[in-house]
Design goal:
The protein is mainly alpha-helical and about 350 residues long. The protein contains 15 helices and 7 strands. It is found in: Cell membrane.
Amino acid sequence: MTLAGAVATGPDLLRLVAVPVFAWTAYRDIETRRVSSTVWIPLSLLGTALLLWDGWLAWHAGGTAWTDSFLIPTAISLGLVVPIAYLFWWFGGFGGADAKALLVLAVLFPTFPEYALGSWTLPLESTTTVGAFSFTILTNAVLVGVVLPLVLAVRNAAAGRIAPVMIVGWPVAWDRVPETHGRLLETPAGLSQGGLDLDALRMYLRWRGLSLAELRDRPDRYRDPATLPAEPNPPTDGAVTADGPVRGDGGTLESAAEDAGLERGAEMASASDDPWGAAAFLDDIDGSAYGTTPETLRDGLEVLATAETVWISPGTPFLVPIFVGLLIAICYGDLLIGTFI
């Protein structure tokens, strides 16, 4: 609790360091869909130190402060939020960065902070269904995440973009696809919510040394796996910006030098059973490419080879709802309680 005349306790003031850090991770999630794991280490260490500091203050405060104000919410935070984050990551509901962010919040914000601003005390709404502040942040983030698809649907409807996938995506021109994060919502059979991951697309193009424009110029040529490069490039992790130069596969089928260099591609697959060399690519990289199958890769390439505009799902960069949920929790409190109860 905040001492009389004080803005907040020392631990609560130091916890505000997390706000700009989470703002930065939310920005990185939008721009790159990648957040380095090293960003969570200092926050974890800070959270552990503040947890010990809070325990010391509660122990010396006497009364029920130790059990009611510290021990119970800390036990709930570590015993409930941590398993929830792990289970959602395990079942694919969260990305690795999302789960790590929630684990950090469980350590950093187990108890409700208080910030005195003149006659105001934040959070404004201190009532909660569960005593752990990290759980309030989580429920706030989930509510924000639920609202985002509705906002997307309204935007599409206002622009006249009416489609079955309007709640999860929007159309983009083909030349923006290489710089776009998300998932293709189209297959040759029509709209679908299980299309090609665009990170996997970038991995494939870099592996072959191609741009999407080159592939569209000569789709029949690149559909033939005999044109696979003899020495493929590293596929990278599919990020929009790749480190290092990408070597083009060069030449044409009429070139004798290329014919000799592409013997490896001809050995890896035949045109009849591996269009685009999709299976050869996935076998060669010895990885999952975000769960992409040869069929999914082929379908995506067939669409992108001719379509001028395609529907893309940006997905939900969940670090954004987490950051917004953190801000709402600090300023207002439990959005679930305030909205529905």
